[in-house]
Amino acid sequence: DPEAEKRILDGLNERQREAVKATDGPVMIIAGPGSGKTRTLTHRIAYLLATGKAKPHEIIALTFTNKAAREMQERVQKLVGDQTKGMWVGTFHSSFARVLRIDGEKIGYSRDFSIYDTDDSKRIIKQQMNRLNVSTDDVSPRGIQNLISDAKNRMVSPEKYASVARGRAQDAAAKIYPAYEKALRKANAMDFDDLLLRPLELFDEHPDVLEKYQTRWKYVHIDEYQDTNHAQYMLARNLADAHDNLCVVGDDAQSIYAFRGADITNILSFEKDFPDATTVRLEQNYRSTGRILALADSIIKENDDQLDKELWTENDDGEYIALMESLSEKDEAKKIERRIRDLHVREGLSHGDFAVLYRTNAQSRPIEEALRKENVPYQVIGGTPFYQRKEIKDALAYLRLIVNPNDTANIQRVINYPTRGIGRKTQERLQNFANKHGFTLWQAIERVEDIDTLSTRAKNAVESFRFLIAKYASKAESMPADELAQEIIREAGLLSELRKDHTRENLMRWENVQDLVSGIADFVASSDDPSLSVFLQEIALMTSQDEEDDADQVTLMTLHASKGLEYPVVFVAGLEEGLFPLEMAAKEKQDLEEERRLFYVGATRAEEYLFLSWARSRYRYGDRETKTRSRFLDEINSDVVRTAGGGELDQKKNRFKSSSDGGSDSSNYDGVDPHYYRRNLRDGSGSGASNGKERKLKRIEQSSGGGRRVVYDEGQGEIVPGVRVEHSKFGEGKVQDVEGRGEKATAVVYFGSDIGNKKLKLKYARLRII
Ligand code: ATP
Ligand code: MG
What we know:
Blueprint: H1 2-10, H2 14-21, E1 27-30, H3 37-50, E2 59-63, H4 66-80, E3 88-91, H5 92-103, E4 114-116, H6 118-131, H7 141-153, H8 158-164, H9 167-186, E5 189-191, H10 194-205, H11 207-216, E6 219-222, H12 230-240, E7 246-250, H13 265-268, H14 270-273, E8 278-280, H15 290-300, E9 321-326, H16 329-347, E10 354-358, H17 364-373, E11 378-380, H18 390-403, H19 408-414, H20 424-437, H21 441-446, H22 456-475, H23 481-491, H24 494-499, H25 504-526, H26 532-540, E12 554-558, E13 567-572, H27 589-603, E14 606-615, E15 617-620, E16 623-626, H28 631-635, E17 641-643, H29 667-670, H30 674-682, E18 710-713, E19 717-719, E20 724-727, E21 731-739, E22 746-750, H31 752-755, E23 757-761, H32 762-765, E24 768-769
Parallel strand pairs: 1-7, 1-8, 2-3, 2-6, 4-5, 6-7, 9-14, 9-17, 10-12, 10-13, 11-12, 13-14
Antiparallel strand pairs: 15-16, 18-19, 20-21, 20-24, 21-22, 22-23
The structure holds adenosine-5'-triphosphate (ATP) and magnesium ion.
């Protein structure tokens, strides 16, 4: 398709085009942030399809988050039309989970294996610590979990680990590691590390399986290559071995996952591993203003271990980077909120244009409070995600047992929740029986009649639990997944448990469970393979970024989660010694450099405005601590930075002086020279854009009414405050408030004094206007 081919190449610069056209042999694109690495990878895939060099099923692309994968898939589709069926685009974890669903039986896992999150694994680890009398004095279950995961990431087997373990914590881990692995296998379950290791085992033991995939995938692509760990590296090498068409893109300066086993040598030794590799360097940055780039450059220059990379831009210099100093975290939050409001109201930036980044999850709380108080819509990425909430995990546990009854961690979770007379003693006896005969917990439950230590009452209780699970397991094939979910959740007593007392929390939980069922219904309606086990796999692999949606709201997230993303306005909060860099990371040079790369990643998310913020005191670990500003602020290029009051950044000298000139009290805010913010937006193109950079600022379309009006369903008219509606469960009610739009629209509806106000997702609530 020559037209598509032209379209694909036209959107690229010379270097990028070169990378796209280099379709034979290994290719590495190594380049700084915002230089179009991800864009080039996407266009390359489209190019392969448009020119017929590859069929969709011959292409695999591995990304860092599911969201990135979705975006890539959509963009490719946009470029080449609908000819993408059969192409694999996903995270390492989801792609290889898929491989294991297809071929895992060859290494002893059934198709319906469970995927354990850290919570589930911890349960197993605790249980094994109990069983093997490993005391928690020396090391916590969580500590053991980390040690084991670390070993797995480095592909150290339990036997090997036992021989190299040193010290009490590692000795304890060495004891648990083999038992943990055995328990997982028995439960037909895998933890996240297994999703990468088991495929390697599979390929190793069954070369024919490896050959099948090698032959199939002519082209292998990897984004964010700098953050791959050893197992991922091995997988990539294995897959690419037949055709040698491996294309990786990355930036060593953005490597931020060493603490999780990411291995920077993967990128540094690419040319050695693949001697005929073509290396492409991209140097033009399309994302950020000149000043933001100058700042970023001054951050990374402090690190010794970095490949040399040029980065330049045709974009305007843009605004100065603004340094914000506050008295406390609360003050900081308030200032951030006021800046957002200011840019929103005066400059017309929409809420979705803002991101607030921080080092630790706990920092979101005061910021959330400040935003909530002023009704600024926001989302927190990676807080407690929906699927990690207790009530959701309880409901999911039942569903997971339906597809895989041997899933011990989930049996333990719900065997007596809601309470059904299977107390701790009974559970212990079941487990002992299982241990003694080498059964899984479920197999023991199936043989409850034979357990002499149990009373008749206990046996009956266990028997009815078994019956509940078995009944729905037998229906799993024939019944749609959402109905199945609805029924078992009801029959298990989960819904009535949540409705028992009418606290707000429980009502919210109840609604969350309803939301889950609606989510499954959605999945059933839209998926090619709408089985419960595919649904469970998908949600088990959701990453912290994935809950982000298109709604117009401020995004709050950790610096780690911001990788690969871009926003017109970025705040980096909490730039204080001990917090960023983290105290424990400041000691070793290596760790400090990783923190600095993290700062680099954060700063380079910004397109137009970048705010660097720190507070003189912060409440941590139950105490108010006095803080000094981060060393990172003393390292940066002060020419491009202004304090909130408009003055120059006074590095070092002023470090401990009270900042009457700074901006430490909120009144300073009003003293800001307004031109300082607006200059760039007013002159030239009116948006600071130039040179063909695609504009990404989404201005709010001023609606004439100005209020928050949400059109729900054309056939139904508008759901707006004041309208009377009918709900299938709650009956008649009156709309009080409407928030959000599209998929995310919610309404608060008053259903009379018995039921009170309910917040409902319009998408699922199926309200009828009366
Ligand atoms: P990061 O290292 O942060 O992941 P990246 O190198 O992957 O960055 P992209 O996200 O691909 O960079 O590109 C940054 C921005 O620049 C995107 O909005 C992208 O669409 C835009 N861009 C990249 N190349 C071009 C180009 N040739 N013409 C116009 N816009 C471009
Ligand atoms: Mg990218």
